[in-house]
Fold these 2 entries.
Entry 1:
Amino acid sequence: MCGIVGYIGFRSGVAECLRGLERLEYRGYDSSGVAAIDTQGALAVRRAVGGVANLSQSLEEAGVVGKTAIGHTRWATHGEPSEQNAHPHVDCTGRFAVVHNGIIENHAALRAELKLKGHKFRSDTDTEVIAHLVEETFEDAGTLLGAVQQVVERLRGTFGFAVVYSEGEDKEIVTTRSGSPLVIGLGDDEVFLASDVVAVMERTRRVLFLEDGDVAVLRPDGVTFYDQAGAQVERDVTEIDWSAEAAERGGFEHFMRKEIGDQPGTVERIGSGRILFDHKGRRRVELSELDALLEGGTVPSRIAAAACGTSYHASLVAKWYLERLAKIPTDVFIASEFRYEEPLLGQTDAFLSISQSGETADTLASLALARETKLASLAICNVIGSRLTREADATFLTQAGPEVGVASTKAFTSQVIASLLVALDLGLRRGSVSHDEADAILAGLERLPTDIERVLDDEAHIEAVARRHANARAFLFLGRGVQVPVALEGALKLKEISYTPAEGGAAGEIKHGPIALIDPEVSTIFLATPSPTHRKLMANMSAIAARKGPVIAIATPGTRGLDTLAQDVIHVPHVRYELQPLVNTVVLQLLGYHVARTLGREIDKPRNLAKSVTVE
Ligand code: M6R
């Protein structure tokens, strides 16, 4: 969605903001802007439509300088993308500048009230009310901190914003959050602000996350935090262990492709330190992460999970693992539905929240609902310090490193493995998985990085298949059993980056409707790797082939019957059934990527999409 950056210290605040904005460009934006306070205390604001390069040119032409600055990349919600609607927004006196993420739900009422008091609005945005409210309250409050604290009381919605003031004796940035993430990076005599840690990582690894309701005052020598009640509070410093290179494209054309290629490493990392050996030399898992979930050692009688998008698909795979291995009934909900329903939750249930970012509004609201019902909760999350990790009782960090491409790839495979490890741990505790079975699955997991490497080595062939089908009118992704969520994920990946309609689902369902779509311009991808229902799946494939629908089969070498039914076959290594989703997913990621690339799409920044959806 939108991105916020800020800098206060000894370097050029303008240059630092531009650097941070470039890091956030992957989130997609339509305009950007910077406000800086120069050594004379004057406020200069420049905004531009289009890329950060346009803004940089405008700042340079105007000669804007300053060691205190805030910046923003905007993704229009209120008001069309234009220079006038780009942030920062300023008040009537031109002393206060504001950058804002999120939505101020009561902006219309506030705007009307402020207009009656004589305030002049220059944009159509909800954000501008914040600048005028700060102006309105500043005289009474006496400080920028006091003004922001009063303004927050008037706002409804989700927001994170930062304000600078041109005439303050002490140069400072005041920032606050309610629902939209903000992180502060600590340097030596300099402080950074951003809505995403990737924007500060290059400068510092010591970060502090704002909690909801916090107001923070940034000065070059440090940060002071105040909680919702206005009391000064301490917030813990978190050390980020992601490498700066992890957020670079590393020579790849797109972040998405680089992140697909990261998977042998991320898969290896997630198991390391978590796979142990028992006295007989058998592999086992015992996750310390689950301690807070299993108070008194009691395993939940049922699990409810709610998530969005790719993380929802990972939750569906988690259900399969939890029911198959741990024998715990599991229900998976779409978070945007769950939060407004009246889910039947029992006191001995546990709640599972899977999210890459840990900041997805619907996922967080679902967790809040589960917590109201007093359910113990587990978050599977990639971002340390994110709100989800702070609000769940227990957190399993997937450690996949920063995922920059909007299309989730390595985060998904890490989420799936995390849920496999959770299911194995619970299964071992309950005795529903034997030690030998756990050992065999974990041994397979150890070999998985090599298996994924083999898929990556076959990229040229996968690309050729993608090129042959790139102009299909639509795609169908079909599987059975644990491959159904993989099919859903394959369809989501392809459609979000190629804009070609794609549907995923259970192969056995096609005769109940989807088969009507089939003609020579609709390609169907079958997840045809070995499974207990393989023969049924082959019958489904025959039904498509009989209707002249082109078939792409993903199968292990030696699978019979494909030569007559499939136009293209992509071979994958044979791995255990529980692990096949991981290998097959990588093929689907590459397939979607190369279809989108053939069609010339903006792969890392697909239209209308944001990396993390922090508003409803
Ligand atoms: O950060 P989260 O995992 O909670 O995000 C959930 C979805 O917005 C996300 O997975 C989305 O579907 C991806 N763009 C899919 O590639």
Entry 2:
Amino acid sequence: MGKRIRVDKLLAHMGLGTRSEIKRAVKFGLVQVDGRLIKDSGLIVDPDSNEVKYDGTPVVYRDIVYFMLNKPQGVISATEDSRERTVIDLLEPNDRLRDPFPVGRLDKDTVGLLLLTNDGQLAHELLSPRKHVAKTYEALVQGEVGDDDILAFKGGVTLDDGYATMPAELVIERREQRDDGVYSSISLTIMEGKFHQVKRMFEAVGKQVVFLKRVSMGALVLDESLLEGSYRELTDAEVELLRSHKRTVE
Ligand code: URA
């Protein structure tokens, strides 16, 4: 038995628009199945045996997947490694078969949101430095993070290699006194993704990140019900959000 999928879902899946844009395209007579114009965007098709055309061009269906992983500490953001466990090792064998790869990197000791997909185009756009996709991190920082740091991050700080960062938004959540000094819980939103960026930004102001978690990337927010090390497929709404965000944030 072939795969059965709604034609609007298939076309949205292939990046031809949101479900409502596809619905409109069907109304305008842009979508054909096996040579016939269709009227119902909910028509069920089998991509292996039905020929779907969008605006006259055949649409080749690829099995694209999007997984949201809550990355645990101790695994690296790579597809393979001879020594270390990778984020791909956390996937079920069936999901690994679809060749997903991590969109960007989190350090081995960083936890939280990591998108895994085999959609090279979306990955490329999310990672493109020109798109300024916002990423929000929560961190525990050794030291007293203060208003001067908020101002410094807003203006951009200079990293150890001389790179001046773009404006970033720092929010101080809490401070606590421990035996070895003050610690601050913060959240930080950055619009770029240099190597070890968050840790190096704090180093630039004389402080050390001791725990780091990513909670969002573009429009995608970590599902807090996912335990560290577990993952799920993105919902259709999440995929659409990611795509539309990508379109508007230039
Ligand atoms: N910044 C870091 O320093 N590490 C990460 O893993 C992500 C952002």
